[in-house]
Amino acid sequence: MDNIDAELAQLVRHDAPRVLALLAGRFGDLHLADDAVADALAEAAKQWPTQGVPDNPGAWLNRVATRRAIDRVRRLDVERRRTREAAPELHADPNETTTMHDTFLVDDPITDPNLSEDQLRLMFLCCHPALGTDAQVALTLRLIAGLTTDEIAAAYLVPTPTLAQRISRAKAKIRDAAIPLHMPEHLEHRLDAVLSVLYLVFNEGYLGRGEDAEPMRVDLCEEALRLTRSLLDLLPDHAEVHGLLALELFHHARSDARLDANADLVLLPDQDRTSWHQPEIEQGNAALREAMALNAPGRYQMQAMIAGYHTNAGDPADTNWTRIAALYDRLVMIDPSPIVALNRAVAIGMAESPQAGLDALPQSDDLADYHLFHAAQAELLVMAGNVNAARAAFAQARLLARNPAEIRHLDRRLADTA
Amino acid sequence: MEYMILLHSDESAAPDFAPGTPEFDEMMGEWMAFNAELAEGGHMIGGASLAPTATATTLHKSPEGNTMTDGPYAETKEQLGGYYVIEAADLDEALAIAAKVPIPYGSFEVRPIAFRPEA
Lengths: 418, 119
Fold this sequence. Notes:
The structure holds two protein chains of two kinds.
Chain A: H1 2-27, H2 30-51, H3 57-86, H4 116-126, H5 133-144, H6 149-155, H7 160-176, H8 187-208, H9 220-234, H10 239-253, H11 278-293, H12 299-311, H13 321-334, H14 338-351, H15 354-360, H16 371-383, H17 387-400, H18 404-416
Chain B: H1 22-40, E1 49-50, E2 57-61, E3 67-70, H2 91-100, E4 106-110, E5 113-115
Antiparallel strand pairs in B: 1-5, 2-3, 2-4
């Protein structure tokens, strides 16, 4: 029975997204493909425990899901004919019938599906800018990573119905507004949206860790890394994909050192560097070298270089803050967000002087409610010797922080500076 | 003179009758009678019913680069200045056409047409 469960889990995670992408492309209908795959998965869950696991589960799923899709197309056709007879004025072309090519009817078109191109197209569809960011993230995890709605809801700490509605709304918009399933004409621009979704998933896993420690929670960092690696397999000539992988690896290499035994936050200078994952750092360095060789700079590569300077420093004192500050100077030009400007100010504070860092702090209303702005300002003020102002800034950060580990950290800093 | 009539109404309050029901037929009858009246009076230039706002995408155009958001146009600092009804293969083609509208700054809501009577 355990074996069957493992086989079914593998079917959901590995084979279902591939078959879904294949059917979505073949039938030109994401809804239909998703419903047909769900039907086939339900059939596997019912049939396999009694009849055993088929020799090639992926081919089995493809065959059954294709049949279910054809059944659905036929049913839809009958329904349409009925509405057309009842209300012909609703149809632009009264003779229109569902387009169903003979190729759909091939019983078992593939046995060893290499579906990567289909999945890439589907990934671009999931990350289409006509969909909201939350919807892009949910669709990518559900349709590309093969996570269930329950798993995604638990990972994002939202109720399952909320997440399910987010996904069904996005799917409805894809259908009703006719968002196409094809490789985008301007790949670079659209690739940026895909990378940003993957990095959002990674960050959610990275920053959410330690909070509500649920053992069954899906590791979003692992999912983001897995998806970034497969994206890189498909688009090896795109420097920013290498850059994102390097960035994720540098962060991930340090993840064990980020929290102590009490799940308290440990800041970069205080982390036990021997617990950093050396193989991941090496992989990050390699990814960064490949990115640079392609000679097409971008925001992820710059962030990866910054993370690389931190992660390759054996001792906090060896950190090359001058280089890091120079990288932030370039990054802030292509990504003029207040967060980047804030990080740049911190780097300047370390590279030049605390006062120079304080002078470089961005004056943006967007940051007034951002706890890390006040925390960074407080640290610069401590370094500048202005303890009273620092304590006020720590207190402000403490008021705005939400993550329990961060709140405990700010409480400690308030106590340290008392 | 030619005029455009913009139909703003609460879409959540719109009737949702299934085709084939007497209620649906009655509703369609009213619309068709109104359209016929316009056509016979020589008033009809064109018109269409739009799909719900959930299908809308807004393209924000600027020389610094175009962006888009999910949903209808909701700001009030720009004013409706015109409209096009176009045929496009899919949303990407419709958005590409919208991006070519020769207004350098602007927000163009792109929404599928649900139903269009014969002009």
